What does this fold into?
Amino acid sequence: MENLHQLGYVHRDLKPDNIMINLRPLQATIIDFDISNLRIANTSGGNKGTPGYFPIRPNLKDGSVLWDVWAIAAIILEADMRPGEYYGVKDERGAHFKGLEHCKDKETSPALRRLLDHTLLRSEVGTMEGLVFIRRQLQQIKFRKYKKFKPQWEWFP
It folds into this structure.
């Protein structure tokens, strides 16, 4: 993501579906640049993206790299949740609620709490941390390990 920003672009549609992971060798690739924009000082424009993975704030639009930072924080939050728990988050308010709820859980890693507090849960955009902060916190987060997801229904009786 840092490379994309250094090249002068903002992705604007980061979500788990747009991150491809290769396990050997371990490598993540970001895809789907349909709504990416030039990284510019002017942040006017319209909100686009996938509900639950973009903020709706007047000063966080089109050219702001904080758009991607916010989305990465939402993805990291989802990665520490049970499968399907983040599903149904439709907007920034819902993501904020999930983040607050997750931070109250005593099993949530202190590093994840810090990451969320300094990104997704910030009400003032100007005080949000960037990608360097996220990278530093990621190295310290102890993600939860859940048992394999088993659907509550049976396909065949």
